[in-house]
Amino acid sequence: MLAIKELYAGYGMVQVLHGISIEVPQGKVVTLIGSNGAGKTTTMRAVSGMIKPSAGRIVLAGRDITGKPSHKIAKAGLAHSPEGRRVFPTLSVTDNLRLGAYPRLTLGRPRGDVDGDLDKVFDLFPRLRERRDQLAGTLSGGEQQMLAMGRAIMLNPEVLLLDEPSMGLAPLLVEEVFRIIRALKERGVTMLLVEQFAAAALNVADYGYVLENGSIRCHGPAEKLKNDPAVRAAYLGQAH
Amino acid sequence: MDVLSQLLGSGVAVGMIYAVIAFGYQLTFATSRTLNFGQGEALMLGALVGLSLVGHMNYWLMLPIVMLFGAVQGAVVERVAVRPAIKSKSEFGWIMATIALGIIFKNVAENIWGHDQLPFPSPVSQTPFTVLGVHMVPMQVMVIGGALLMMLAVELFNRRSIYGKAFVATASDLDAAGLMGINTNLVITFSYALSSMTAAFAGVLVAPITLAGAEMGAVLGLKAFAVAIIGGLNSGVGVIVGGLILGIAETTTAYYISTGYKDVPGLVLLLLVLAVKPAGLFGKTVIKKV
Amino acid sequence: MSMSATKKVLVISGLAGLAMLPHLWPNPYYVHLMVVIGIYAILLLGLDFVVGYVGEVSLGHAALFGVGAYTAGVLNFQLGAPFVLTVPAAIAVSAVFGLILALPALRVNGPYLAMVTLAFGTIVQILINEMTFLTNGPMGITMDKPSFFGHRLNSGEYYYIVMALLVLTIVVVHRILKSYLGRAFEALRDSPVASDCMAVSVYRYKVYAFVISAALAGLAGSLFVYSEEYISPDTYSFHLTIQFLLALIMGGRKTRSGPILGAIIIVMLPNVLADIGLFRQIALGLAAFAVVYSAYGLARKRLSPRQVAIPLAFTVGLSVFSHRISDITDYRLTIFGLLILFVVYYLPDGIMGFLRSLVQQVRPQWVRRHEWILDKGDAEHVWAPPDHAVTVKGNLLEARGLVMQFGGLRALDMVDLHVAKGSVHGLIGPNGSGKSTMMNVLTGIYRPTAGEIEFNGKIISACTPSDIAGEGIARTFQNVQLFGELTAIENVLVGLHHTYRSSLLDLMLHTRRSRREEHEARMRAASLLKFVGLAELANEEAKNLPYGKQRLLEIARALALNPSLLLLDEPAAGLTAPDIKELVGMIQKIRGHGITVILIEHHMDVVMGISDTVSVLDFGQKIAEGKPAEVQSDQKVIEAYLGGGAEQQPA
């Protein structure tokens, strides 16, 4: 569904990614793990058009989206729930979610049943339904994360990018986030997941890539990576 | 007392003009963190285009045409002066480029309409009347009403329509708005169009009071900036209160001290506010993350 | 620092040429133009401090110029004061106005500051107009050329005074800008945060830049009165300010030649524009140049058709336009505005910058954007004792009950931190747990909502970042904060800013003391670069270094502060495995020299390998502290790191 080929990207003169290739097959969850500064978030940003890659190709559902501006990539069916949540604090929960469906608008008319999808999101996140008219800025961190995920789902995306959905959340809420990721997976949503909690991410994912200094160090089925001692030592927070 | 109430009336009217121009600054600042240093020239062009049109048509037909002209002019400013500078992340670039366009507009206006201050016909009667003990000229009432209406219309658009919400989203987080499929470049262009449109509208409103001429924009633009700063660049109520403070301070200074000094209180207030509370009286101070 | 022979010849022939000019070209009109050029050049050299070096837009320089002019004019007109008094007075008064103008600059920058300077300019113009009792209002003031010992100078003689002062200004400005002050100005432009954390107070140096700049504007203003023999308020308008800015950016910022070239252009421009025939020729010349340059660029594939389309259309259009109109004076300002647009987008480095890049393509070795510093460092010059000796016994740093609240988010929640003298103290925790906030609170970038920090026996929680740096706390940044346009060694020299004692006068006169200090600092800087393994890259611009090297450069720069406490914020991020090994060795050496280290790091093997104590943050609270092994086996820590349900994980 999503194919990244030999991608190079960075900020200004600083090259962060040195030719990485990742495949995200339809209906699968692929996770990207690695230490801070390895280039996980940069990969996500390059895919969703927040930064322009300097070389390489990104193909979404057979369409080349390399270097396109992010609003076009969103229209092509890619949703990105960014690191740090980035909800719109001065808009209500419902407005945030409706904006998630913005790419489905053509001349003010939505494609498909936006209200129905809104209901489905509220079913998935009952907390958000309770707070539908509250301003997003007044939500707690966990609720904002649910809103960010819900907003991304509103696009009915071909591929969903989740960047650090558990960041800054209490353990109980982290479990909740992973429960939702599982639920989405069961619905068949294709996902690329970046997580600092590598073990939890590998538990939910089908396949994993390990990034190190902007290159893929190894990749394989999640089960296999989970039991790789080197991976555990470096990324699961345990000493040798 | 009589004098004071007259001063109050004209102070409020002038203040509302400042508020509406300041509101224009807020619009572009919200979406792109940039300001049009030629905002005063947008106002001047609006007034002069209006003046040329009003001889050939009904006043109320002229208004929307002037506003359309303002919107196009704003879009041009954004495309020529702002977008390239945003792309190259050059603050110096957009400041200088908007100033340059302002100079060009002014010079062109001088060549078309001459250097003189021209009278602008008032659409309403000139006889003063009294409301709540305050002497007002009908034109002043129209200025106040028009300015409020304009700001209200834009606010309503932002709150009610999905495109307005896209505007708010772009203002609060450009990157995240892009991820929502919002064409943020277009929104920024749109904010400049809106901003210049309000300025052109303000130009037509104020011209019957101040006369219209190529020179009229510069000081108005600067003082409206003072209002935007005094009120806070992110506060809607702030610009109205800031406008009123400045408008009244100015008319009283002009009357009690000298008309020559009438521009001073606003500018001094600007310097003071920036030195003491840069976020403005109503603005929220934001702690910059490192 | 000795001048090369060719340079000497150039300078001497330049001076001789300057002296001969009025004889070669005795027309009084031209002599007067040259005087005005000289005066503008002095002002532009000053403007460059604010615009080129500090990177702010000043729209108030015409007013400062006016303040100088009126100070001299009024003193002469009202009191009959002589030239030798009026000129210093003008410099002093303008400098004071520069100080006033700089006060809002302490709080704001960018567009705000530009507007402030514009407001200042407008106020000054109003005051000059209205304070008739002093300034004679719109009538203006008439006066004569200065006289010395009863001899009134003619314009030819006055030319020599202006040129002598111009040469003097160039020398003084050049010396200041090449010194530690010049580096401080550039540093605060590139990264205000990092400047403050290097004990270079952004506030103070911004004020210095404005004051120096205003003083030169005052000098220029006073010279201008004597040259014109008449002043009136409308001279010092917004348009003059814009002319100055255009001249500076068109000539070229951050050079000495740029302001002079810029002054020549804006003084000659009205003359060119007055003569339609000449203007047509110039427009044609420009168009021809643009066509040739674009063709060359296209042929060499250096430029794309898109890039050349607009300038080409513009220059050709200008040429056509010049033939369509009969009188250009009415369109002067339009041409002016177009020039600004053109310069902003196509000549951002000015004509001098453009010429330099042209030469660089042909003869790269002729062009150096920076002074090459070739001092060789050695191992013994790496270390120096801290400026404030560590007197405290026990813990060097004590943070008690720190709270940092951002709106609804409590980034730090009653955190205590005790850092033992001479230790390496690891600080770990998941993303968003408050580690970086902690760094920023410790270095004064954030003021804590509650709690206090005691460092070396002193409460520092209410101090500014630059004061805290001065006390001996140095840091690196998670998002690298180098001074991008300075070279690697210049970055380290900014860190050594605190070692300089030379006064402004020392710098102007280039005294022995200032030379000695500079020499010692360069030696130190080279040694520090060698220590972090960047000796080969000393003269590279920091922004061109690879990411990993940039992080190492930050460490060298931090060590230059002679800290007693060094905060390292994720130093290993982006480093390769062998680099990390070297980094660990470096940190051990740093501790070996008695410097206490606080280390934030995600590479567990690094933290656990070298820390004496490790504190763990989660949700802004300290959840564990102790020896590395203890912390690693702490159930709370494992949970925080592994996230939701550690029990799900296979052991």
Note down, in words, how this protein is organized.
The complex is a heterotrimer of chains A (240), B (290) and C (651). Chain A is of the alpha/beta class and 240 residues long. Chain A has helices at 40-48, 70-75, 93-100, 114-124, 126-130, 141-153, 171-186, 198-204, 222-226, 229-235; strands at residues 2-11, 14-24, 29-33, 55-60, 63-64, 78-81, 105-106, 109-110, 159-163, 190-194, 207-212, 215-221. Chain A is built from ten helices and twelve strands. Chain A is globular, with a radius of gyration of 17 Å. Chain B has helices at 2-32, 39-54, 59-87, 91-113, 138-160, 162-172, 174-179, 184-210, 216-231, 236-256, 264-276, and strands at 129-131, 134-136. A two-stranded antiparallel ribbon of chain B has the order 1-2. In chain B, β1 and β2 (134-136) form a beta hairpin. Chain C is an alpha/beta fold. Chain C has three domains: 39-236, no CATH class; 277-366; 392-648, Rossmann fold (3-Layer(aba) Sandwich), CATH 3.40.50.300. Chain C is built from 26 helices and 14 strands. The longest helix of chain C has 27 residues, at 202-228. Chains in contact: A-B, A-C, B-C. The interface between B and C is large, with 46 and 50 residues.
